[in-house]
Write a structure and sequence with these properties.
Strand content: over 45%
Radius of gyration: 11 Å
Largest sheet: 4 strands, antiparallel
CATH architecture: Single Sheet
Strand order of the largest sheet: 2-1-4-3
Number of domains: 1
Order of helices and strands: EEEE
Shape: elongated
Number of strands: 4
């Protein structure tokens, strides 16, 4: 994965970074929001793309 297209997903409840993924920044301008499993909350929560660096 190239560093310029790498994004982090942060849990909206506990604010922990749980997932990493890639995104085509030329075609996708909005921040991505997904329901993913948080191992800290121990349930499915909304995860939002985090601000880079």
């Amino acid at each position: 994965m190239s560093q310029d297209s790498l994004i982090k997903f942060q849990c909206r409840k506990c604010k922990q970074i749980n997932y990493y993924s890639t995104k085509n920044k030329k075609t996708t301008k909005k921040k991505i929001e997904l329901n993913k499993y948080c191992r800290f909350c121990k349930k499915h929560t909304e995860h939002r793309e985090m601000k880079g660096k």
